[in-house]
Amino acid sequence: MNRTRSGKSQRASCRAGTETNIEARKQDISPLEVMLETMRFYHSGVDRLIMKLFNHAEDLVDPNAVLEAIRELLSLRELALKAAVAAAPYVHPRIKSVNAADHSRDFIPLEERLAYYEGKGPDPFTRNKMN
Question: What pTM was computed for the model?
Fold first, then answer.
């Protein structure tokens, strides 16, 4: 039995993605730039609201208006944080774990440092420089 494929070919979605990537490169927009721009947009909204609350506090005599402004401020802050969290892996490298058994040449055990500070031992800071 010979089956023919119906619907869109497997390569069709790849071509669409490639065209989108080419268009994005032409516009010089990357997903990271969008995330950072979004973060800055929400963060600037927070700044504007804070300035409004401080500079025009006398206009906000209604407690409900103050609460609404604070809710909006917190909402914008949360959106800015979400965008920052999304962008962080692309901006900052992950901190690697350190194996406690791996001592570098500059490692000085705590006991040696304490003995030196108490005046009971040789200078451990010059020990490694002589080797």
Answer: 0.51
